[in-house]
Input
Amino acid sequence: MARPHVALLCAALAFASTAHAVPDEKQDPAPVAKVKGKHRFRVERTTDPRHVILQGVADTEGAYDTVNLWDSAVVSFGIGQWTLIHGKLQAFLAYVRANHPKTFARVFQKGVGIDLPKQRRAYDLRLIVGGRTLARRKGETHDAEWAEFEEVFRPGGLGKPYRERDDSKGARAWIKRFVEAGKDPVVQQCQYEFKTFELVKKFFRHRLRVTSSRKYPSKFGERGLRPAKGVYGTMHQVVGGDLWLQTLVYNLYVNAPYMAVCLVSGAIQDVARARGWAPDVATWPARSKWRDALVEAIERATASCTYRAAKRKGKPFRPWRDSRLPKALRAYQRLTGDRSEFRNQAPFDGLRFDRDGALTGPRNSLRGFARIRAKLERAGLLK
Output
């Protein structure tokens, strides 16, 4: 028979462990499969719209253990390819540190060899490597601004083309360490949760505003899809509830947010012009009257987009047309079975929102989101 004071202690510990849990939310483990040596985000069957959306992104961006040191971002990591120079990598590290301090110490402090300042600001680009605090400096060029980070992560690369900067012994050592970090199950779970936050709180609430001072509208080969200066609504008003549009547009958005805003705005302008409507989705009639036309315009705009166009094997290559569109479509069709012309026969809807952009629908339509929000608050990332 257990002693009374021991039983009371056990009961108190059990209560403490659940006191901050969100009621009625089930655990939502990260989808993981090892494919060709990579720890990939891989879903086989699902009724969760987030899985379809994120599968399209992961098939394009990379695996949990994907790391790039070859472009202007200096370091990009994980299924979200969180970038160092934009502070996204630092925010992700803050999320891990606040919620899994032992994992952070073992994987990132000891394993990778990086740390964060004890006191972080809301938007903090600093990193600590070998006891030295790296920070962005004032300068007129990339190399002047990011010299401290370049010297540490890509030694000997300053002044070289970006794609040649990861070809050093020092850079390859960093790549190996980050790859090992991406294999850790807790780090993978954190990536899954953090990507969910970015999807719901950033993408769907993004305002569709085009400014005349930006060059991106000219990147559409079809002139009718080049948006004029103005406000066209909010992203959730366009793609809310529509699983295919959410899958495609988010795949474009993670690559270049403002470019995706221009693309969607140009498609809205095209549909509105043909019907004599104002180019603001908030003023349009019921979705059934324009949804298929907008899908066609967005797919057409994706195909005509020349953003980062180049040549591969001597042939023209447009990343959005030749990579992101087909990969988003394959993920969508594989997980929904919908091969209809306008992608409107999925067995379940996309994420739905109210007029203010808040999630609506069945309880726990996005499993674990309240728990993720609490973890973000703990990391100081919702200020």
